[in-house]
Amino acid sequence: MKALIMAGGYATRLWPITKDNPKALLPVGDRVILDYIIEKVKELEIETYISTNRFFEAQFRPYAEKHGIGLIVEDTLHEEEKLGTIGAMKKAVDELGLDDYLVIAGDNLFSFSLGDFLRAYDGRTLIAVYDVGDPELARRYGVVVLEGDRVISFEEKPPQPRSTLVSTGVYVFPREVMERIDDYLSNGNRDSPGYFLQWLLEKGEEIRAYRFSEYWYDIGSADSYLEALRTLLKESHVEEIQISPYAKIIPPVVIKRGAKILGRSMIGPYAYIGEECVIENSDISDSIIFRKTVIRNSTIWRSIIDEKCEIRNLELRKSLVGGHAKIQRGE
């Protein structure tokens, strides 16, 4: 068996944050998203590969080398060129050969052990499913109907979901199924795992489900990104920083090296402050601030601010600010 982590998307729903930063390498707490996945995969001691695109190759290559992981690079530079998940799986098979594949979406944060997941694998396609508990929310995903642990229906993004159980981007495909990818793609089928699973069911393939609870985050929006931070940031990680005696830190927070927390600032809870940021007389909570951003006399709540921004005299709530932006209100 081989593990394949899919990180070839351009994450347009999180633009402008992900315009130059691959989503899988965004920070969540003191680590990046991919770190949480790799930690779980390494316990399995199987060959592991990251699938990405030419545009983000330079960022993934040192990461892959550091962790002793292979890199498969599709030759695309733009959203409209991308191969998609099934196309990228085909490329992996072409390069690595047929095998059973553990396939994991690279923007996926989940609570279960992959060891437990694989113990449920019996040679038939296996998918991890999670109850989102809300039909409106379920409409965004692939919705599963089960009979015991057998999948009897799978519908991608249905307008009227038949359940609130959804597929979570963690799969095991046996080699016989990986062999059918060419057949699936050659008929002009849509290039996403959900439609592939629907097609497999229609062709009589048995699919089993592994149910889990606790938490699952598909980091596809600012809200899910910030909720993941709240769940996974358990304790503070404060590096070498400059901090005013009048400033207050409310844990848990992450404050990276070289940051300056000046004046009567209040940081936290659930705040990430990147390297060399300057925060002065400002309150920041439930937010992620990327490196070298300057925030003065402002209140930031449930917001994500990209690198090298300047924010002055503002109150930002539920905002997403792209890199190098300068926003201020007059004194």
TrEMBL record:
Domain of life, per lineage: Archaea
Gene Ontology MF, one: transferase activity
SUPFAM superfamilies linked: Nucleotide-diphospho-sugar transferases
Zinc among keywords: no
InterPro entries (alphabetical): GMPPB_C (IPR056729), Mannose-1P_guanyltransferase (IPR050486), NTP_transferase_dom (IPR005835), Nucleotide-diphossugar_trans (IPR029044)
CDD domains on file: NTP_transferase
Domain Mannose-1-phosphate guanyltransferase C-terminal span(s) in chain numbering: 249-313
Keyword Transferase: yes
Domain Nucleotidyl transferase: from-to ranges: 2-234
Pfam families hit by this protein: GMPPB_C, NTP_transferase
Keyword terms, alphabetized: Transferase
PANTHER family: SUGAR-1-PHOSPHATE GUANYL TRANSFERASE
Family of this protein: Belongs to the transferase hexapeptide repeat family.
Protein name from the UniProt record: Glucose-1-phosphate thymidylyltransferase
Species whose genome carries this gene: Thermococcus siculi
Record lineage: Archaea, Methanobacteriati, Methanobacteriota, Thermococci, Thermococcales
